Structure formats: structure tokens, C-alpha cells
Amino acid sequence: MEFKISRELIHELEDLIKSRNDRQLEVLLNDMHHADIAEILDKLDFNEATYVFKVLDSEKTAEILLELEDDLRENILGRLSAKEIAEELDELETNDAADIIGELSQDLKAEVISELLDVEHAKDIVDLLRYDEDTAGGIMHKELVKVNENWNVLTCVKEMRMQAENISRVHSIYVVDDEDRLKGRLSLKDLLTTSSRTAISDVYIRKLNSVKVNTEDVEVARIMQKYDLEAIPVVDELGRLVGRITIDDILDVIKEEADKDYQLAAGISQDIEADDSILEHTKARLPWLVLALLGGFVTVKVLGLFEPAMEEHGKLFFFTPLIAAMAGNVGVQSSAIIVQGLANNSLSGSLFSRLVKEVMLSLLNGLILAIILFLGSHFLLDVEFIIGFIVTIALVSVIIIASLIGTFIPLLLEKFGIDPALATGPFITTSNDICGILIYFSIAKMILGF
Amino acid sequence: MEFKISRELIHELEDLIKSRNDRQLEVLLNDMHHADIAEILDKLDFNEATYVFKVLDSEKTAEILLELEDDLRENILGRLSAKEIAEELDELETNDAADIIGELSQDLKAEVISELLDVEHAKDIVDLLRYDEDTAGGIMHKELVKVNENWNVLTCVKEMRMQAENISRVHSIYVVDDEDRLKGRLSLKDLLTTSSRTAISDVYIRKLNSVKVNTEDVEVARIMQKYDLEAIPVVDELGRLVGRITIDDILDVIKEEADKDYQLAAGISQDIEADDSILEHTKARLPWLVLALLGGFVTVKVLGLFEPAMEEHGKLFFFTPLIAAMAGNVGVQSSAIIVQGLANNSLSGSLFSRLVKEVMLSLLNGLILAIILFLGSHFLLDVEFIIGFIVTIALVSVIIIASLIGTFIPLLLEKFGIDPALATGPFITTSNDICGILIYFSIAKMILGF
């Protein structure tokens, strides 16, 4: 039961836009989900999209705004006045509104805030703007239902109905004391099944998880996943209830984190998408390529050291890409396992036992690969026995060293508070290329003595 | 406010286990969250963990079982009788119970099912076992609250209280007709604010998303994220309501999918964790290394074709790892962008425009890198002008070709219904190594004519 955008629909819309048939546009789009409309607008050009956007009702457009691709949203916001933007924000939840304000220029920000109609809402939004976006404060929203521990169930239900009007999902009702300090929670189900004269203090659950405003967002995600929570309250330094984080906020954090690790492993250093501009792609990709190029300079230098081998044992040089590739692949495998283990908090045991395990693993893999290589060098590649022997010995050594480097570097980065995912990708492959080639030719030199 | 396992706690537990002090063990663990206890058990050895597990109450152990690492769970289940396992499953939600039964041997499965006390529960679990684990049916649970459209609010609240007893999170109340066909939904909030004589058919919301039992799990995840749903009902071919999927089920799907893509990009072919056995690691890693090794054989052959260059232009061979590394890195960047774009459904435009964009991007990156390389080869690497010139030309060509291969292959795989993430990692780097070296030496041969 999902909506799919057809080419015909896009054509129909384009025709309606061309003929300025606003009435028909509204009829066509009115029944659609805002996420679907956003998907449609992303397929139109900026002018068409803005036109449609202005035709629609602000109740709908506010939600659409959230779902648009960044560049289209920026473009549309650029064509709205401060007052028009404020009208959109009045319709949104506090954290969504704060996110959009956060994208505006400093001057426009103040102007938009002053145009917000609902003063309470404006206060909440301004409050949220204070927090760092990677913290619980940065992802929480102010919409929540709270009751005083001194009330009874009847007052509580009345209050709750009032408060819940603007909240799409209630989840839990939080219980606070007179100073607004978080004391516990009530479930909707409990409310439905308790007599209306009961005092709240007699029924609420005193044990509940909460996080501080400055807790890192990935930590919040970890806690909510571990304890299987659908919402978690956020408290300030004094233990006062200041906001709430729901599981859909956390979904974004988890996806972003996974995307970031994936991109880092592929040598892409900021969050970019396929449809971003060439300049943004260059900014994200070029630094890693420069790193790899400089690493390449080092491999040229290293190979230069062994130039004397060329005359008699030139075939040795045919194997450098093979050795480098194996070192790179093994290193990336090892570091990816560590990076994921760190991210999922699933690493146990000491560094030493981990390194021992990697050595065992590399020995096993290395020996199997060595047999293939040794046979291959003899039957397929047709090189002298001694060359095949050297390459095989080098392969096993390189695999062991590469896996140790791959294991050690992310753990080291983590120790120094640097994102271990930086270690994967070009960084590991480049350093392993260099080490691998150095080891290979050193072994060759020892055996052949050139 | 999160629990951290201390070394002291583990020691204390180990002492209590040694002295068989069950009473004290229970006191110590009774107040802890099951997720924390699972984390503790994972740190103990199998015998200790099983001992503690048997001391605890089945209400608690059932939930713990779900959170344990696979190997410990397997070990503990192996030491329980069919009846004991059934006791655990009686405490669990249907989909969790079905997941655990799915891990048992065929014989044990039947035996455990026959020992389940709650017949309704057993029927639901058996029903769930029918579905493929990667489909909506495979991740849904049977716990949900449903009411008949012909009831009034009062009957509905009564029924709901009864049904909701075993359900931790109500979310929505589904409305069905006499044939159990899904008609719409009611929110808890609406129930709280509607008079008790109102007919359900007058208040329920008729529009709602649902998925079919055989919808793929990643598709369900996409729909729930797009429409920001916390729960989605699952219907069979006849439109009858058969289950429900909540956002926490989807969280697992999203994480698994992200982990899988990440591991594939790193050349690891099944879902493994750092703490899995060496044999499992070898099974997951070795195939990719063999692929890379065979690719390496091809590079040796390719270089062999250009052996005549060695006498006069031996320095050319110093640059093969550099060229191969650049080709690999560029290819992985391009393919990672495509794989993520496909996963997030955010690719727009034609294949042609995408390839044109990649060429523009590679030209820009390539030119900047070419300048660095050309200057570097002259001032740092001290090679003749002509070699520097050849390497520079080759670099730009290789970057363009590698990015086209990186873009094209995942799109091609997707077209044939193969997971495009397979394209990233060793596959792309290996094929780009080969192409890169071939292009480089072909250009050298054209210019130098050896």
C-alpha cells in the first residue's frame, strides 16, 4: 500500500503549473501524504517546486519542508519572507522548527523568531537552539505530557487531554514535583484502568531511565536500544524535566552514524549524497585521494631503494600490486571488524588477546592463500621457484602485519578520543601498501642478496 | 543514568557462583534490568553463565535469553530440556519466541512447541514460523489490540483492557470487520476523549498504511521511516489483519542492513562480530581474499606483457602500486555513493547524466591530483620528465575510468537484482587495479614505444 510517483503524474503537474491552475493542483495534491508531496517536489525544478509549495496550505507545507532535500529546502526558504517562514514553523514540533531555524542566516534567525505567533512555542524553540546538535538537548523536543505528583488521576486526565492536544504520540506521562524535577512516569494504560480519585503519587512508577541534556546523541541511541525504550526524558543539571527524545529521533541518529562510518570506510569525509554538487563531492573525496597519492609517493621511494634487484630479478616487481592489494584488503577487514565492535560496544577481552586472535586468524588465512599463491606462481604465472617462494613467504608475513595494523590503529584512535572509523579505508590501505611492499622486498633482498 | 559493569561486580559474582550462594546471587541481580544481566552473563564463562541463568526466575530469564550473544544463548539452550525452553518461551512475545524456536534443531522444535502451556500463544508462534525471516511476516508479532467496527466505545474499552494486558505498547487500536479484514484504526487518545456510547464506526480513522505478509523487511523499514510510523499492521492476501510491526523491530532491520553494507564494503561476506570464532571469521573473510589474490595473478600477467620496458624504463614499474591504489580508492568512493543512494532511494536522473557527472567530478579531482603528481615526480621522486609526464596522463585517465567502473557496476548489479553492496570493497578495488595498470602501461608503451 505505498504510493509510487509516476511519470504521468509529474507531467500532469507540470502542465497544471504552466497553466497556473492552482485549484486543480490543490485538488490533486490535497489527499497525498506530505512525505509523498516532498518526493514529488524533489523531482520538479526549483521554480516549479516553489510554485506548488506556495499554492499549498501552510499546515501541509510545514511538514513538507522537513522532508525536502537540503538544496530545495534552502532554495524555497530563500524565497519566503521572515513572516512566511514563521508561519511554517508555527505548525511544526519544537525540534523540527529549531532544526530549520538553525539552517537560516544569523539575521534572518532573529527576524523569524520575532515573527512566531505562539509565544510558548517560540520560547521552547529558542531554548532548543542553545544545545549542541550532537547532544540529547540537540535532538530532544519540548512536546511531552507531564503531571504533578500531588495531583489525582482525575486532574491528571484533564490536564493530559489539554497537553496532549498538540502531541502526536504520548508514550509516557512524566511525573514531576513542584520544582519540575523528574520523579517517574505513568502509562496511558494505567490511567485507563485506575479509579479517578487515586493520587498520582500512589500509582506512578518511580524507576525510569533518563538522560542529561549534554549526553551525546549516539550514547542516547545506545541506551534506548539497549533498554528497548520508545521514548526517554531529558533532564537538566538540576534534574528538571526539559524535554523528551522519541525513537524516531534516534532512528535518524543511528542512520547518520552508520552512513558516516560507511562513507569513511570508502574514503569520503563528510555526509554527501549522490545528488550533491560536484564541488561538495570534491571537498569530501579529494582529501583522501591526496592522502593516497602521497602514500603512493612513498611506495615509489621504497621501490627505488630496491632498484638494484631490477637487472637480475625484474620479475619481483610484477608482484608489487598483488602484495599491496592483499595488504590493503586484509587491513581493511581487520579494522572494519574493530570499528563495528566499538560502535556496537561488543568488544570484550584485552588488547593482547585480540591481537593474538588476529595473528591466529591471519596465519590460517595466510597459509591457505600461500598455497594458492605458490601453486599459482608455478603453474599459472610461470616464474622461477625462488621467486614464487619469496612471494609466498612475503604474503604470509604481510597478511599478519597488515591485520595487526588494521586491528591496532582503530583501537589506538579510540583511545585518543578520535573517531576510529577514520582508520578504515584509504588510511589503512595506504599505510599497508607501504609496509607490505617494504616487507616484501626486504625478504627478497635477504634471500637473494642483491 | 546508565549501568556500567565493574570488574568488582564480576569478581563478586564469580565468588558467589563458586560458593553456590544462590540466595545472594538472586538478591544481587534481582533489581537489574534484563539487558544489564545479559551483558554480565556474556562476560562470564559458559558454565558460570548457565549457573546464574538457572538460579534466576523464568520471568526474567526469558528476556535475558533474547539479549545474549548468539553463542552463549545456543550453549544455554543446549543445556535446557524442551519443557524448560517452553517455560521461557511462554513468557516472551510471539515474534521473539518464534525467533528462538527458529534457532533450535528440527526435532527439538516440535517437542518445545508441544510443551507450550498457553495454546493461543503456541498457535500464534507456530503461525509466525511459516514466514520467511526477511519479510514482514518474519518480523511481525501477533500482539496487537483490535476491535470490531460494529462495537461501541464502551465495549471497545473493555475489550481493549483485556487484550492490552499482555501488550507492552498499544500504539494504535486496529478496527476490523466481522471477517477480520483491516478497516482502519483508533488512537488511544481518541478513546479517552469520546463518549462511551459512540459507535466505533463513527470515530475510527479509515485511512491507514499497512503491508502484506510477504513484503520485504527493508521495504517495510523504508515505508515506516518515510511516513514516520511507530507501528504498521500486517495483512494477508485477503486483507485480514494478521500481525503488527513496531518501530523497534524495524530498528534491528535498519542496523543489520547498514552493518551488512559496511562489512561488504570491507570485504566481509557474512554478519560476523569481533568475538566470533576464528573459523567463522575465516569463512567470512577468506573468499574475498582469494578473489583479490586471483586478481593479483592477473596484474602479474599484465605486468609481464610489458616486461620489455624494464630494461630501459625500469622506473615505470615503481609507479604501479601508486596507480593501482588511486584506481582502487576512486572506484570505492564512486561505488559507495551509488550503493548508499540506492539504499536510501535518493538517486534521481538518468544513468547517462550520472555518468557524465562522475566524469566531470573525476576530471576536477584528476586535474588537481595530476598537478600534485607532476610536481612531486619532478621535485620529490626525481624521475625523468617523460616518466613524470606519462604517469600524470595515466593518473587522470585511470581516475576517470575507475570512477565510471565504480558507478556503473553497482547500478548494473541492482538492475539484475543482485545486492549492489557486493560491488564495493575487494571486487571494485581488484578490477580497478587490473584496469589501472593496463591503462598506465598502455599509455607508456604508446609514448615510449618499447
Automatic annotation (TrEMBL), chains A, B:
InterPro entries: CBS_dom (IPR000644), CBS_dom_sf (IPR046342), Mg_transptr_MgtE_intracell_dom (IPR006668), MgtE_N_sf (IPR038076), MgtE_transporter (IPR006669), SLC41_membr_dom (IPR006667), SLC41_membr_dom_sf (IPR036739). Its main location: membrane. Signal peptide: none annotated. Residues 140-203, 204-260 form the CBS domain. One of its GO terms (molecular function) is metal ion binding. The chain crosses the membrane at residues 286-306, 318-339, 359-380, 386-413. It comes from the Bacteria. It is found in: Cell membrane; Membrane. It is a multi-pass membrane protein. GO terms for cellular component: plasma membrane. Gene3D superfamilies: CBS-domain, MgtE N-terminal domain-like, SLC41 divalent cation transporters, integral membrane domain. Pfam families: CBS, MgtE, MgtE_N. SUPFAM superfamilies: CBS-domain pair, MgtE membrane domain-like, MgtE N-terminal domain-like. Homodimer. Belongs to the SLC41A transporter family. Acts as a magnesium transporter. PANTHER family: MAGNESIUM TRANSPORTER MGTE (PTHR43773). This is Magnesium transporter MgtE.
